[in-house]
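ok here's the first one, seq then struct tokens
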Amino acid sequence: MKKDTHPQYYSQATVRCGCGKVVTIPSTVQAMEVEICSQCHPFYTGAKRIVDSAGRVERFKARLKKTEQLKKSAKKHPV
């Protein structure tokens, strides 16, 4: 068998969540950072929370608002 084909295995790897929770698990990566865990995930907590790091939700809301304004102005001035 070839030597050094498998990655290093850490039995006490740490996972840090954005909410502050720290979990110790076995992994091939010694330390990880995640945005959402079971303590803060909306499915488990029942709280609505929008996770958007790229601003997509705001852009969608802006487009929606602009479309509604165009519809209102089209009703006032029929062609």
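and now the second one, same deal
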Amino acid sequence: MTTRTIFLITCASSMTIWGANNSAMQGPVTGYIFDPGIRAIRQVTGMPGAAYLGAAVVSNVDSAYVSRDGSAAFAVQAGRLVLYTGLTNVTPASVALRGLITADRVAWAPGATAAAIYSSKYGQAQIVSGLLQTPSVSAPIDLSALSGEVAALAFDGQQIILAVASSGSGGIYIVTPQSVPQRIASAVSPSAISLAGADLYFVDRQTQQIWQIQSYAQQPTLLLFASDASLSSLVGLQLSADNTRLYVAGAGNGAVTVYDVAARSQIQSIALNFTPTRLDRFVRNCR
């Protein structure tokens, strides 16, 4: 059994996948994505270079957040956030969760065992744990004191990491159910976050810079990773599964730029024929 890492680049109007949508084709299911065109969570079938969108597994979806391993998803349906498990089954199971806030951002912890959700309407966050056994919902965490827009969300299983865009108090914040938000890095317009063990990376859409925070949960140290004139309007950031490559999606330059993490240098620029709005990575085990 091999593990493959697949990057999905999202544009505002549709989900872009390698290859064409052809129901007559067959191949291994390599993951699941949300297709806004038909308001459904769909299979990604086939391998990179010859993949296409397959059958819908959950329909009537306004938005969705699929775990990286493809085992579960949060879906917004009729204004409610619903958890679906067993996406690989013929009929995925919906799980009713009491006390769940109406969220518009979801960040999955590694292993899809827990997730953090955020509601911009109410300025609240919440942690949902035990997703593989008996899901439980924490009390809402009040984040209304934060000044600015929460532009990105990440979750390491213990702490929620927020990218807050604000001219005066913007930056990267960490928070737990037991602590108030703590700013660990200042930035005017952070727009994406990616975790890599004890470190995290984020991009600033205004300065077009990529930053690294070493030991973000213990003794945060902010380092400039790259300041590249070719980047523009950064909207997405992801690390490869082995943390050796950093991928950055730019809406302004219409490309995904690839960096060697150890050398802190650009090694490739992949031109896109659309304007990206985000960059997601998921991993599926293909038999």
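notes on #2: Residues 1-6, 10-25 have pLDDT under 50 and may be disordered. The radius of gyration is 18 Å.
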